[in-house]
Amino acid sequence: MGTLAGGVAHDFNNILGAVLGYGELAQSSVPPNSAVRRYVDSMMSAGQRAKSLVERILAFSRSAETIAGLGYEAVGFSSAVEALEAFRSDPQRFDAVLSDETMPGMTGSQLTEKIIAIRPDIPVILMSGYAGPTLVARARAAGAREVLSKPLAARDIARALASVIAPVAVGYKN
């Protein structure tokens, strides 16, 4: 997932560079108080928000490398359905599941329910950019042990993994 996210962010960043570059040229060639300038300024503002999104995606992609750097084998999937199929085929292969709430095919909470039905002891961590009380309650009801709010630093993921895997290693079952 991290490699895919990094590739998408890189490609999007290339497109964004052209949008922002030509936007700056447009800003300098239209009168400051004109309607066209307001449109270009709005486009540039949206471009800056997109730039921030790219930075968050890149931070996520680097967090997968951090997971591998901590000795975990990170396995990524492009959809929740693919992740569920892999889990069904070999549930004991996984020590924990880390998923985003918003995924193609089904939500992270739905994925959690299905994974917990297969293997009730597996620790599941959900991430979301919108981890409000409703999502936290839904995720916990589905069986998630942790719910993390994005954007995330690598240390946030490392702490969450350590907190859900360590208790299992000494016999704790949630």
What's the SSE blueprint?
Layout (H helix, E strand, L loop, with lengths): L1 H28 L5 H35 L10 H10 L7 E4 L7 H11 L5 E5 L4 H10 L3 E4 L4 H16 L5
Parallel strand pairs: 1-2, 2-3
Task: Give an overview of the whole structure.
- By secondary structure, the chain is mainly alpha-helical.
- It folds into two domains: 2-58; 80-169, 3-Layer(aba) Sandwich (Rossmann fold).
- It is built from six helices and three strands.
- The chain has helices spanning 2-29, 35-69, 80-89, 108-118, 133-142, 154-169; strands at residues 97-100, 124-128, 146-149.
- Strands 1-2-3 form a three-stranded parallel sheet, sandwiched between helices.
- The two termini are 27 Å apart.
Beta strand %: 5-15%
CATH topology of the largest domain: Rossmann fold
Instruction: Determine the mean pLDDT.
Output: 84
The CATH H-level homologous superfamily of the largest domain: Response regulator
